[in-house]
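Summary of Year 1 activities. Much of the first year was spent building the evaluation harness for sequence design. The harness presents a backbone, in tokenized form, and records the residue chosen at every position. We chose the following record to illustrate the format because it has been used consistently in internal testing since the harness was completed.
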């Protein structure tokens, strides 16, 4: 009896020692990294995938959570691969025993004893399955994983790392590649195929071995039917469906903007854009249609923005994101081009602001010499005297230059700057040609400008991420009344032939030599811009904004929403009268005398200018000398000349005021940096 008790004690002690030793062995396990790299993703405003990028080693691995995977697939996977997954501690003794018997019988190790946890251990270390030392390592890592992770976390690792053929890893990437859908919406047949693939991913690849894939899938379906997981109808339906032997490409939606996103933040794994995925797809199709059948290498760029929020909803950088004769990889929405006549609304709007003109003011369209600059209308014709409204609607050049000459071209470039446009001025000093497109702007710049007009004259923070732009200030580009007057005029610009679309204020433009064709339009909520031309900037004979770009503009609006949002009513301060009822000085525009009769006007620096350095020469036109100059309300000088030297020693804003001999004033607020 004593001997029996002693033997039992020895046995229990040995068991405890083995258990403690096993615990120490498991606890000492050095686990592989559990946070593996994955493909960088670009998502739309609703979290839908726009574009994904392969990892550095060329593999696709899209991260996935347990709740994002079809529950039927998860049930199939566990029932087929490891039915006691939620009961064991990493190793299934029953399965291991069965695997050992088979190994002895066949004189080799089979995979039948591997649990899902052991498979995760192998995937994390890229280990082998057929050698004893490899199997032992998997057992050790599996036991250790079960001590530091929950079952759902281990299952999630499997879903992200399982191989599915070629460079496809993880169930989400596989579902995209083979079914062109997310793994949340798998059918029974698709689930069975994804259960079968990791066992022999290369031999069963649907895109290369559809027949082998079909047999493997059907075997899974049959076994799960025998296990009672599938009924007869589900089995029959699953087997009946053919395996699609196609590998679908991963989405490449909004490719240019996606490239810009990862270029600006190379460390982020996910980039959330303000793009509307469905609208973006329709815009890309529209862009492709716009150039289809053309042999002149014409390209197109389209940009759509909500001018209330500033969110970019659609961004097309080219008709096709590929290396072709049209230079499709270039983001032409950012290319600097001549804007043609698209700046005329800003010119007239600034003229309204300064009291130079009114929409009903009569203005002359006749040959004019502006200090040696002799512009002509695009068609070479002259209309005589007409209202400013008609001059803008017919995009006449002479009246626009006359207004620019009266107020100074610096006011035009300052207005662009306040709108957030990054204008490139040839030579650094703007001339009268700015009014007709003699300045470099991108489609993005013009959408900013027209968005500001649509936003009651206040600049819009155009952005494609759902976060404010650091340092953005919503400057007032135009007074509310002036912005509404421009909108009202542009609502009646003649439409292209065959287009019947009311409620959209728009303007077209064609640059010198027919290099660029533009159409920019807005309603009460959105603004859309279209550029067409050649990527290399060479002329496109016969290309006009009204014929080429305008139809694309209206087609883009039609894809954006079923009906337009009305432009707000005129602000109460708006003067809406006929020409005969205007104040005397607004009935007829005479640019050569207007400033002189109206008092002094600071021609430089324009309001909103940013001055680099600490010194500038301010200039005044009109009024009556002598002039008194004030800086932030303090007198700083008195001159008989029309200019004054300002020496600002500190960075920051400065309010500059000039008073002429008759007591009339003008002001400009500028920034030194």
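For this record, the design step produced the sequence shown next.
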């Amino acid at each position: 009896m004593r001997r029996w008790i002693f033997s039992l004690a020895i046995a229990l002690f040995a068991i405890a020692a083995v258990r403690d030793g096993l615990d120490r062995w498991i606890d000492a396990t050095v686990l592989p990294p559990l946070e593996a790299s994955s493909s960088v993703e670009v998502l739309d405003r609703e979290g839908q995938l726009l574009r994904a990028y392969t990892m550095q080693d060329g593999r696709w691995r899209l991260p996935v959570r347990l709740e994002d995977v079809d529950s039927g697939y998860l049930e199939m996977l566990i029932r087929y691969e490891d039915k006691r997954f939620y009961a064991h501690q990493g190793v299934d003794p029953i399965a291991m025993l069965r695997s050992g018997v088979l190994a002895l019988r066949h004189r080799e190790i089979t995979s039948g004893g591997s649990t899902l946890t052991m498979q995760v251990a192998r995937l994390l270390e890229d280990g082998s399955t057929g050698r004893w030392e490899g199997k032992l390592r998997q057992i050790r890592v599996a036991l250790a994983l079960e001590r530091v992770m929950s079952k759902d976390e281990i299952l999630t690792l499997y879903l992200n790392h399982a191989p599915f053929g070629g460079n496809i890893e993880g169930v989400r990437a596989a579902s995209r590649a083979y079914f062109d859908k997310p793994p949340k919406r798998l059918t029974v047949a698709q689930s069975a195929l994804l259960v079968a693939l990791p066992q022999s991913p290369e031999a069963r690849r649907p895109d290369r071995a559809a027949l082998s894939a079909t047999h493997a899938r059907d075997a899974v379906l049959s076994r799960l039917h025998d296990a009672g997981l599938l009924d007869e109808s589900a089995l029959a339906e699953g087997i009946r469906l053919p395996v699609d032997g196609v590998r679908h490409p991963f989405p490449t939606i909004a490719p240019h903007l996606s490239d810009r996103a990862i270029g600006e933040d190379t460390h982020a794994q996910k980039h959330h854009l303000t793009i509307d995925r469905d609208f973006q797809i329709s815009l890309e199709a529209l862009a492709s249609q716009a150039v289809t059948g053309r042999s002149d290498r014409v390209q197109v760029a389209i940009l759509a923005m909500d001018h209330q929020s500033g969110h970019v909803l659609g961004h097309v950088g080219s008709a096709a994101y590929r290396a072709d004769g049209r230079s499709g990889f270039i983001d032409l929405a950012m290319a600097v081009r001549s804007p043609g006549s698209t700046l005329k609304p800003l010119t007239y709007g600034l003229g309204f602001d300064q009291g130079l003109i009114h929409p009903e003011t009569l203005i002359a369209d006749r040959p004019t010499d502006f200090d040696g600059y002799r512009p002509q209308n695009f068609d070479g014709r002259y209309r005589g005297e007409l209202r400013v409204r008609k001059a803008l609607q017919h995009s006449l050049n002479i009246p626009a230059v006359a207004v620019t000459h009266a107020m100074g071209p610096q006011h035009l470039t300052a207005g662009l700057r306040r709108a957030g446009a990054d204008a490139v001025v040839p030579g650094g000093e703007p001339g009268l040609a700015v009014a007709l497109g003699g300045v470099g702007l991108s489609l993005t710049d013009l959408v900013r400008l027209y968005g500001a007009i649509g936003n009651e004259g206040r600049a819009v923070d155009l952005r494609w991420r759902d976060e404010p732009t650091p340092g953005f200030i919503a400057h007032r580009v135009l007074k509310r009344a002036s912005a509404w007057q421009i909108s009202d005029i542009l609502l009646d610009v003649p439409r292209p032939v065959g287009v019947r679309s009311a409620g959209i204020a728009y303007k077209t433009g064609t640059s010198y030599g027919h290099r660029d064709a533009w159409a920019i339009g807005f309603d009460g909520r959105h603004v859309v811009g279209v550029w067409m031309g050649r990527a290399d900037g060479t002329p496109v004979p016969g290309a006009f904004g009204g014929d080429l770009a305008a139809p694309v503009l209206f087609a883009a609006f039609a894809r954006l929403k079923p009906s337009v949002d009305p432009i707000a009513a005129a602000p109460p301060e708006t003067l809406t009268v006929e020409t005969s009822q205007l104040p005397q000085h607004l009935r007829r525009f005479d640019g050569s005398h207007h400033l002189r009769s109206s008092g002094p006007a600071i021609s430089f620096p324009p309001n909103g200018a940013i001055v680099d350095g600490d010194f500038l020469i301010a200039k005044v036109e009109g009024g009556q000398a002598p002039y008194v100059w004030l800086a932030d309300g303090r007198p700083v000088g008195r001159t008989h000349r029309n200019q004054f030297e300002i020496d600002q020693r500190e960075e920051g804003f400065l309010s500059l005021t000039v008073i002429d001999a008759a007591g009339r004033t003008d002001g400009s607020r500028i920034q030194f940096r």
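Residues 1-30 form one domain. Quantitative recovery figures across the full test set are reported in Table 2.
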